[in-house]
Write a structure and sequence with these properties.
8-stranded antiparallel barrel, 143 residues, globular, 1 helix, 9 strands
């Protein structure tokens, strides 16, 4: 039983657009996504959190299995769709990166009738004086 549950969370291959449980709901609109971050929340070991400037853009590229940041490309370790029973959100996509950052995204329009945009957060846990950095993210299909 545990094997079946784990299999449903594994990432689908970039060319696989099937409607299975591991299919990525972003793919019908494209494999390449232009994303931008908004303000950054920085939480420190002393318990304080503050807002810092965090405007940056990046390309979420499922086609080549990486995220293209200005500082360099980071490999996608895995990505999967998650649906929470009883939630008004139809599905979320979690993208785990090789450098331990995580991108959580949910469709702006759950039916994707009026918009293909996705919004969420780019979160990075740290271990020094800064414990966490989190930025708001919005993504649209790459043109």
């Amino acid at each position: 039983m545990a094997v079946a549950a784990a299999a449903s969370l594994s990432a689908a291959a970039p060319g696989d657009r099937s409607n299975g449980t591991s299919s990525n709901p972003m793919w019908p609109a494209g494999l390449r996504w232009d994303c931008a971050t908004a303000a950054k929340i920085v939480c420190e070991r002393d318990g304080s959190c503050k807002v810092a400037k965090g405007d940056a853009s990046f390309l979420l590229n499922y086609d080549s299995n990486n995220v293209e940041f200005a500082s360099g490309d980071v490999r996608i370790k895995r990505h999967y769709q998650q649906t929470v029973q009883g939630s008004p959100l139809q599905s979320e996509v979690k993208v785990e990166l090789a450098d331990n950052r995580v991108i959580w995204l949910t469709a702006v329009d759950a039916s994707r009738t009026y918009s293909d945009a996705w919004v969420g957060a780019l979160t990075e846990l740290k271990g020094g004086a800064v414990l966490l950095e989190s930025q708001g993210v919005y993504c649209i299909p790459h043109k």
